[in-house]
Amino acid sequence: MTVNKIHVKAPGGWMNDPNGFIYYKGEYHLFYQYFPYDTRWGTMRWGHAVSRDLVVWEHRGVALFPTICEDQNGCFSGSALEYDGKMYLFYTGVHYHKPDPKDIHHCLDEQFDSAQLMLCSEDGKHFDNFKGKQVIIPPIEDKRVGDRTHTRDPKVWRGRNGWYLVLGSTTEDGRGKLLFYKSNDLASWSYVNSVSHEPHWGWMWECPEYLETEGGNVLLLSSMGIIKDGKREENQIICAAVDFEEKGCVMSLPDTFQYADHGLDLYATQSIKDEEGRQIMVAWLRMPEAVDGEWIGMLCMPRVIEVKEGFVYFRPHPNVESRYTRQITAPSEADEAGYRVSLDMEEGERLDIGGYQIFREGNRIHTDRSAVFGGHKEYRLAFETPELRSGCHLDIYVSSNIVEVFINQGEYVISNAVYGLTGKLQFDSMERLRLCTLES
């Protein structure tokens, strides 16, 4: 049995998007895009991990896998919900018109159909892939509504007047687009409305999520082609506070967006309400190479989403934050899951965490992973936040392959994939650093 702490990691092979995140019968279930046979992308199925506290995760094998024509070439991303004690999984199934004869895990010329499917589990443990699947939205025929190929990632929620579903899509002139559907029974869905924006929000919107918080409503998007700087990973998570009218599914988007994480390594969010009713999320950490040649792909730590004065914050989940209780004096004393460094950083100061550089300059936080990224110069190596609003408190969570820098309790976050961190810490005022690791 594979067990992870804090971060869900591929249990061998390849992992990408988190899927079907749900709090169900006293446990958190988290599914993920999974190819177990190699450390590369392949025909997708859903892996399955479970936790009681969002800290210790137990992998439970494969939950979804291709069995019918509509998902013959992969069970792609989607969401989950509970109704009448049952767990419902919603996902995108893909069928290739022309598989690559030299590699059947890829198709030629992006010739494939995308359909939206549902599978119901009685207990969240058993998933009937042979008899339990139902196509709820077939490939879209009307180009004025959406794209037959690039429409995917159903997010389903219970509204005041029924069930609602949003899909990510693209317009004929190359702009991201959301498609809203409504249902009274989770099986029959009717198209209601769509929303789009100008091209600078990206050409395709993946993994859309609409969330309601006490401070305001939030739209999360994984937007394709939004950064054009010649580096890898043009696709990024963006977010914004939005207005949404359930009747008619009318959504008003602002002129500008935020990046959910300024490390620009995360992609494909999954969010839910936790057992206390907080909106929380995880996202996939994109990694350029496998670890020890055995696995590639992991998720960031769970984060609480909050809106304050129209600004979206992402702070560490209290379940995770509260577990770092054992004080240590050096990284060598840390639990295998890593450690946390906390400090108030002054203008001009620099902290070296095993080769990973964090410094404050011009009231912005900068990071540089050049020394701990294996020479992958095609990726971005240096990062910075926008101008800080006030103060500069850092909580830095350090693990062997990810560093997550939370500034001012989630005002901004920088998360980066890393390789080969050393156990050394360097800072001019070491006595100002507070180091903690997980309780035993």
- Main sheet summary: 6 strands, mixed
Q: Count helical runs.
A: 1
- Tally of strands: 37
Mean pLDDT: 97
Going across the biggest sheet, name each strand in turn. 1-5-4-3-2-23
Broad structural category: mainly beta
Spans of at least 5 consecutive residues whose pLDDT stays below 50 are: none
Strand content: over 45%
Basic shape: globular
The radius of gyration is 21 Å
Helix content: under 10%
Measure the end-to-end span: 20 Å
Written account of the structure:
This protein has one helix at 318-321; strands spanning 3-5, 13-24, 27-35, 45-51, 56-64, 75-83, 86-96, 99-100, 103-107, 112-121, 133-137, 152-158, 163-170, 176-183, 190-196, 204-213, 216-224, 236-245, 250-252, 258-259, 266-273, 279-285, 295-296, 298-299, 303-308, 311-316, 326-328, 339-344, 350-353, 356-361, 364-368, 382-384, 393-398, 402-407, 412-417, 425-426, 434-437. By secondary structure, it is an all-beta fold. The strands form eight sheets. A six-stranded mixed sheet has the order 1-5-4-3-2-23, with no helix packed on it. The protein has a six-stranded antiparallel sheet with strand order 27-37-28-33-34-35, with no helix packed on it. A hairpin with a 2-residue loop joins strand 16 (204-213) and strand 17 (216-224). The chain is globular, with a radius of gyration of 21 Å. The protein starts with a strand and ends with a strand.
List the helices and strands and how they pair.
Blueprint: E1 3-5, E2 13-24, E3 27-35, E4 45-51, E5 56-64, E6 75-83, E7 86-96, E8 99-100, E9 103-107, E10 112-121, E11 133-137, E12 152-158, E13 163-170, E14 176-183, E15 190-196, E16 204-213, E17 216-224, E18 236-245, E19 250-252, E20 258-259, E21 266-273, E22 279-285, E23 295-296, E24 298-299, E25 303-308, E26 311-316, H1 318-321, E27 326-328, E28 339-344, E29 350-353, E30 356-361, E31 364-368, E32 382-384, E33 393-398, E34 402-407, E35 412-417, E36 425-426, E37 434-437
Parallel strand pairs: 2-23
Antiparallel strand pairs: 1-5, 2-3, 3-4, 4-5, 6-7, 7-10, 8-9, 10-11, 12-13, 13-14, 14-15, 16-17, 17-18, 18-19, 18-20, 21-22, 22-24, 22-25, 25-26, 27-37, 28-33, 28-37, 29-30, 29-36, 30-31, 31-32, 33-34, 34-35
